[in-house]
């Protein structure tokens, strides 16, 4: 091996420390080109004839971008057209230092074989290393290093000249000074824009160019619309002496001129600062970390309840704004005023690519258009594109490049199209992107860790594993479920019953630290959308090897209790095992077997035994004060061919649902206790904090209006009072009350036991709880499996499992993914509901008032589990007199007064006037209020769908 | 702030070495005339001086005398100017006592002590500049000094530290790598027979990785032994030329 004997000391002074490091220069770093005959490289990345045709460079060439080009134009580099690029080590290091996400994207590109990107380690190459000269800034040195490397490449490629055209290298830089110096030293150098525009046959690439700083002058007038952002040093000084507050910017969904900044205080104390008006918002975008300054107390305002949307054509000046802002400043009661402030600077931008649609400019030839994001909290973005016609009606993705102070809107660039709006596939993708759900296909690296098929149980697998194949085990799941993670059995012993819960042994297949594990940890959970499932682990595992299907041998993690007939646990045992399920049943099938007294086979007996015990367990649990809450869940009947929803149905609960649930709860609690005993510092648990008393206000008021008393002192008191809450002649009342109670609850969260002291699970009334029973679809369960496996000495530990800091970070990610997946799920249901009503036309349905708002009532329709808002003011008609009573709460419209729980009849239709935000519109039919309610429209008879007789 | 990238995708480490490459080796034997044996060794930026006295009669307490072999007495110290910050280092602090003990154990395994019953061999090592791998540099320097003193050994004792990053073992760690959260392992080897004189690791490492790490450490030690051998041969040649004249 050749190693250069030259070595150079590199001194880096940071603060007072002087660090001396060796820096070896080598002569065995190759150029990576196929053409080169001189370098003894084994594999090459750069092709012999790079096929990028450009007006400017008609000869074959490689491209070397500088750091700023990579940082700003990563979207362009990601395009399939751009190939044969040399990434210098200097550039890579600078990118890594400046932006972690872009660094990751760059690395992904480099790893992609078809892109032909090559990383040249120029800093360690004998001929391209340069030392920083006295008086030279680090940036200048790096620029020079890039130029030296580019020069070396052009010399080097000249040497290996073959019979064809000599290869050249083209340096891309946006820096004027750098460009000039490069030209002086005889390099081919272009600005990034120039080069991209010169590429033949790829007009859409130009749209993906980010706008650079010197471009923006011609976009807007010189008028300054926003105050200058303060430099970071002054912000830091201000934060230190308390004049500024640091917080996360949260734009309001309903009002584009209003936002709050969430300031995390010490411990539990956190405050919200209200921000109103464009000037005060000062170019902040949702989720940015900003510095705010509080306004004097006499300028504080109350949050307005007006809904304002930024609509219409692009506004380049602020005359219209004035009016809208005035509208905001309605005089508010002194008490309702909140701390109000203004944004003085941005500490960290949190921009991501946004999904949305293009509002084409009125002028046909114009290339500048406004883009409306799907998320209402994001401002509209100005982008430049030549393909507006093609993009109209499409869902597209756009990234923000910057927001200069004289521009009303941020500037951005087009990233890619997702498909046409309203299309099921496209909408699903939008939904996943907007909720940050990782949904790409699993990479090759991940798939490489899958077991090879055909898979079978080998003797090595049987070490530390019990053989339970002879037991009569069965699983009970919803219909159509292919990822079966739990199975049950029940066997009569001499002294009592032996009970077992068997959970798929996913941790056997997913080994800690490998690519598959990392991917699963990042995804956190499987996301179930209507008609689609986004898996956490590859399908081979989720639907086959881990799924406890019937009549195949599967690895399981078993939790086996000895339970007597009073459902008291005598003994608990955990073991890894092999099982062979005898049947996979649906809830309905299991219920039928239990009810059908003629059946006396093993499985049925098993089920009956389980069911009996489950009932006792449930009783115990309720006695302890567990809450039974209610929320309506709907199921769509999906047409098997078109995948359109054809019918809606609320989910039915059967005894068997609760049977499975009881045993899963029991298993989770047993496991939680075990892993906490064994690892008090790093057990992953789940807690459900008790809600603060103020959360119950709505529930209490609503109950009072029907003269029902609800106690909220403890979970038990709440559960008991919910049980007795009944109103004669109103059977649905109890369910409605429970739905309201659900809304008062807090989110349950995962946490690491070493980092918290409050373990209580409020809803289940259990002092300790975790998730153990669904490792196929939840990552938390995999961690719990690993902990339990170590606890029973069936597996080994690994460092991260015992590190409470890492565990805690992991639980934060899991909580985030879990929340996002729920939002995504809800959004998917909402979208399918819209599809359903689109096909059904207008419907008249009975519903109940769930909430009363200032200008609207929120109505729940039990039949569809659908919630909608009936507004009493509209822009077109004269508004009726509306009186809102906050104490009731009730709303008097003309003569009629609405209370919570009132029965109403509404007509439901789909409002498709805004393609991006289609919504369900409800209007009142009964009670009849002149001028407000509408007459019942003819319900379109259910259109007979032509069915193919086959 | 992203930490240091210890191993790039192209397989280069911070200082431009590949995973298995050692640092630049420079050594001189017989640097002092007063002592019985001495050596100066640079491994990259880590520089050490080793001096050997003996074998001589046991000094101090007579109870330490062994009737079947020689006692080895080791002392390790660091120069005040050896690190980025100047720091007074009193004798007998915990770290250097531990290091002295390790050196003693290493050399008791390598030196043929049974040839010198009732006597003592002193080995003093001083780190002049520290840039990672202090223990291994000390062992290598002391080996050269013992050879210079003409004391018979079973084999060269060669030591090397290895670390584990991204599923790859790195040989001969420098200071930045040692501090970068790498679990490192120090191995002193008698390369010809493959016997381990000392193995030390105080970081956490999953046991699955241990084998790969040991393998890398052995290879690195064998590399070190080749270099040491060259140094000794060259020194002998230089020393023998004037006497021949």
From TrEMBL, chain A:
One of its GO terms (cellular component) is nucleolus. InterPro entries: Dis3_CSD2, NA-bd_OB-fold, PIN-like_dom_sf, PIN_dom, RNase_II/R, RNase_II/R_CS, RNR_Ribonuclease, Rrp44_CSD1. One of its GO terms (molecular function) is RNA binding. Residues 61-180 form the PIN domain. Its main location: cytoplasm. Keywords: Acetylation, Cytoplasm, Endonuclease, Exonuclease, Exosome, Hydrolase, Magnesium, Manganese, Nuclease, Nucleus, Phosphoprotein, RNA-binding, rRNA processing. Transmembrane segments: none annotated. SMART domains: PINc, RNB. One of its GO terms (biological process) is nuclear mRNA surveillance of mRNA 3'-end processing. It holds the Pfam family RNB. Component of the RNA exosome complex; within the complex interacts with EXOSC4, EXOSC7 and EXOSC9 of the exosome core complex (Exo-9). The catalytically inactive RNA exosome core complex (Exo-9) associates with the catalytic subunit EXOSC10/RRP6. Exo-9 may associate with DIS3 to form the nucleolar exosome complex, or DIS3L to form the cytoplasmic exosome complex. Exo-9 is formed by a hexameric base ring consisting of the heterodimers EXOSC4-EXOSC9, EXOSC5-EXOSC8 and EXOSC6-EXOSC7, and a cap ring consisting of EXOSC1, EXOSC2 and EXOSC3; DIS3 associates with the base ring of Exo-9. This is Exosome complex exonuclease RRP44. It comes from Champsocephalus gunnari.
Automatic annotation (TrEMBL), chain B:
GO terms for biological process: nuclear mRNA surveillance; poly(A)-dependent snoRNA 3'-end processing; rRNA catabolic process; rRNA processing; U4 snRNA 3'-end processing. Residues 21-152, 155-219 form the Exoribonuclease phosphorolytic domain. GO terms for cellular component: cytoplasmic exosome (RNase complex); nuclear exosome (RNase complex); nucleolus; nucleoplasm. Keywords: Acetylation, Cytoplasm, Exosome, Nucleus, RNA-binding, rRNA processing. InterPro entries: ExoRNase_PH_dom1, ExoRNase_PH_dom2, ExoRNase_PH_dom2_sf, PNPase/RNase_PH_dom_sf, Ribosomal_Su5_D2-typ_SF, RNase_PH. It is found in: Cytoplasm; Nucleus, Nucleolus; Nucleus, Nucleoplasm. GO terms for molecular function: RNA binding. Component of the RNA exosome core complex (Exo-9), composed of EXOSC1, EXOSC2, EXOSC3, EXOSC4, EXOSC5, EXOSC6, EXOSC7, EXOSC8 and EXOSC9; within the complex interacts with EXOSC2, EXOSC7 and EXOSC9. The catalytically inactive RNA exosome core complex (Exo-9) associates with the catalytic subunit EXOSC10/RRP6. Exo-9 may associate with DIS3 to form the nucleolar exosome complex, or DIS3L to form the cytoplasmic exosome complex. PANTHER family: EXOSOME COMPLEX COMPONENT, EXOSOME COMPLEX COMPONENT RRP41. Belongs to the RNase PH family. This is Exosome complex component RRP41.
């Amino acid at each position: 091996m050749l190693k250069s004997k030259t070595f150079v000391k590199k001194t880096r002074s940071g603060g007072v420390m002087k660090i001396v490091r060796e820096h070896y220069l080598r002569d065995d770093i190759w150029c990576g080109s196929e053409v080169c005959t001189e370098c003894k490289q084994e594999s090459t990345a750069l092709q012999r004839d790079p096929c990028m045709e450009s007006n400017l460079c008609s000869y074959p060439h490689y491209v070397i971008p500088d750091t700023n080009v990579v940082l700003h134009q990563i979207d362009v580099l990601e395009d399939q057209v751009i190939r044969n690029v040399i990434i210098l080590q200097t550039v890579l290091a600078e990118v890594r230092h400046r932006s972690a996400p872009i660094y990751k994207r760059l690395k992904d590109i480099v790893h992609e074989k078809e892109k032909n990107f090559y990383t040249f380690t120029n800093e360690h190459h004998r001929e391209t290393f340069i030392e920083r000269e006295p008086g030279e800034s680090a940036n200048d040195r790096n620029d020079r290093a890039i130029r030296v490397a580019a020069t070396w490449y052009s010399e080097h490629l000249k040497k290996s000249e073959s019979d064809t055209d000599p290869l050249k290298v083209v340096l891309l830089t946006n820096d004027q000074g750098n460009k000039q110096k490069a030209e002086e030293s005889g390099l081919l150098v272009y600005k990034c824009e120039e080069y991209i525009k010169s590429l033949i046959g790829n007009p859409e690439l130009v749209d993906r160019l980010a706008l650079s700083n010197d471009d923006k002058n011609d976009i807007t007038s010189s008028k300054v619309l926003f105050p200058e952002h303060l430099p970071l040093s002054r912000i830091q000084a201000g934060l230190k002496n308390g004049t500024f507050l640091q917080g996360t910017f949260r734009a309001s969904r309903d009002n584009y001129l209003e936002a709050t900044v969430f300031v995390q205080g010490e411990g539990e104390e956190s405050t919200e600062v209200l921000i109103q008006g464009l000037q005060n918002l000062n170019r902040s975008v949702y989720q940015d970390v900003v510095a705010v300054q509080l306004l004097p107390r006499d300028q504080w305002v109350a949050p307005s309840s007006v809904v304002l949307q930024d609509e219409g054509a692009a506004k380049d000046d602020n005359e219209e704004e004035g009016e809208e802002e005035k509208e905001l400043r309605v005089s508010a009661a002194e008490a309702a005023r909140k701390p109000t402030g203004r944004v003085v600077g941005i500490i960290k931008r949190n921009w991501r690519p946004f999904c949305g649609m293009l509002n084409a400019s009125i002028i046909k030839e114009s290339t500048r258009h406004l883009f409306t994001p799907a998320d209402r909290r994001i401002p509209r973005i100005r982008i430049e594109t030549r393909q507006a016609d093609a993009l109209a009606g499409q869902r597209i993705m756009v990234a923000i490049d910057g927001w200069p102070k004289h521009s009303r809107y941020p500037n951005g660039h087009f990233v890619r199209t997702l498909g046409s709006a309203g299309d099921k596939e496209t909408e699903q993708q939008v939904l996943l992107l907007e909720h940050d759900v990782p949904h790409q296909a699993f990479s090759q690296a991940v798939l490489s860790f899958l077991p090879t098929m055909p898979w079978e149980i080998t003797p090595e697998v049987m070490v530390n594993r019990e053989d339970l194949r002879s037991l009569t085990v069965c699983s009970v799941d919803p219909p159509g479920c292919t990822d079966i993670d739990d199975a049950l059995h029940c066997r009569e012993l001499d002294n009592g019953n032996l009970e077992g819960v068997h959970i798929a042994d996913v941790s056997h297949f997913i080994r800690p630290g490998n690519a598959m594990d990392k991917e699963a940890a990042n995804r956190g959970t499987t996301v179930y959308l209507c008609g689609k499932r986004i898996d956490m682990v590859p399908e081979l595992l989720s639907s086959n090897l881990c799924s406890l299907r019937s009549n195949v041998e599967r690895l399981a993690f078993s939790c086996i209790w000895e339970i007597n007939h009073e459902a008291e646990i005598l003994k608990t045992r955990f073991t890894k095992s092999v099982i062979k399920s005898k049947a996979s049943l649906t809830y309905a099938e299991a219920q039928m077997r239990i009810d059908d007294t003629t059946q006396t086979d093993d499985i049925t007996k098993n089920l009956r035994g389980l069911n009996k015990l489950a009932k006792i367990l449930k009783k115990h649990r309720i006695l302890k004060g567990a809450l039974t809450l209610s929320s309506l869940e709907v199921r769509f009947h999906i047409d098997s061919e078109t995948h359109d929803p054809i019918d809606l149905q609320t989910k039915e609960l059967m005894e068997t649902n609760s049977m499975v649930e009881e045993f899963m709860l029991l298993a989770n609690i047993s496991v939680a206790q075990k892993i906490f005993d064994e690892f008090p510092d790093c057990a992953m648990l789940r807690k459900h904090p008790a809600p603060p008393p103020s959360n119950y206000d709505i529930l209490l008021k609503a109950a009072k209006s029907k003269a029902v008393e609800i106690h909220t002192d403890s979970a038990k008191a709440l559960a008991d009072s919910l049980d007795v809450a009944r109103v004669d002649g109103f059977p649905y009342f109890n369910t409605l009350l429970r739905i309201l109670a659900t809304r008062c609850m807090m989110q349950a969260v995962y946490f690491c036991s070493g980092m918290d002291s409050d373990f209580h699970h409020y809803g289940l009334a259990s002092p300790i709880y975790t998730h153990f029973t669904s490792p196929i679809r939840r990552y938390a369960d995999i961690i719990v499996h690993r902990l339990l496996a170590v606890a029973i000495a069936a597996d080994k530990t690994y460092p991260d499992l015992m590190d409470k800091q890492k565990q805690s970070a992991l639980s934060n990610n899991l909580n985030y993914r879990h929340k996002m997946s729920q939002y995504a799920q809800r959004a998917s249901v909402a979208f399918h509901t819209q599809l359903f009503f689109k096909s059904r036309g207008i419907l008249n349905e009975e519903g109940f008032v769930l909430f009363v708002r200032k200008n609207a009532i929120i109505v729940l329709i039990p039949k569809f589990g659908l919630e909608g808002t009936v507004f009493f003011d509209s822009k077109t008609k004269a508004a009726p007199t509306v009186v809102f009573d906050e104490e009731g709460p009730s709303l008097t419209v003309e003569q009629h007064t609405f209370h919570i729980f009132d029965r109403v009849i509404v007509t439901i239709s789909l409002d498709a006037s805004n393609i991006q935000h289609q919504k369900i519109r409800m209007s009142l039919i009964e009670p009849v209020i002149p001028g407000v309610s509408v007459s019942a429209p003819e319900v379109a008879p259910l259109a007979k769908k032509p069915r193919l007789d086959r | 702030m992203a930490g240091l990238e210890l191993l790039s995708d192209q397989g280069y480490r911070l200082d431009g070495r590949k995973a298995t490459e050692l640092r630049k080796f420079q050594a001189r034997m017989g640097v002092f005339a007063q002592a019985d044996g001495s050596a100066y060794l640079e491994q990259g930026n880590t520089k050490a001086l080793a001096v050997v006295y003996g074998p001589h009669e046991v000094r101090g307490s007579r109870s330490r005398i062994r009737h079947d072999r020689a006692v080895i007495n080791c002392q390790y110290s660091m120069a005040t100017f050896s690190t980025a910050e100047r720091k007074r280092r009193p004798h007998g602090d915990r770290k250097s006592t531990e290091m002295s003990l390790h050196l003693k154990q290493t050399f008791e395994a390598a030196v043929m002590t049974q040839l010198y019953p009732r006597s003592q061999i002193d080995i003093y090592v001083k780190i002049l500049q520290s840039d990672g791998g202090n223990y291994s540099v000390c062992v290598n320097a002391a080996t050269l000094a013992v050879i210079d003193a003409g004391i018979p050994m079973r084999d060269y004792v060669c030591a090397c530290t290895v670390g584990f990053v991204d599923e790859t073992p790195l040989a001969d760690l420098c200071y930045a790598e040692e501090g970068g959260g790498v679990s490192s392992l120090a191995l002193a080897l008698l390369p010809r027979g493959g016997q381990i004189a000392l193995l030390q690791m105080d970081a956490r490492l999953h046991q699955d990785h241990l084998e790969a790490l040991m393998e890398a450490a052995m290879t690195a030690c064998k590399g070190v032994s080749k270099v040491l051998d060259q140094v000794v041969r060259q020194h002998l040649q230089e020393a023998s030329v004037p006497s021949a004249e």
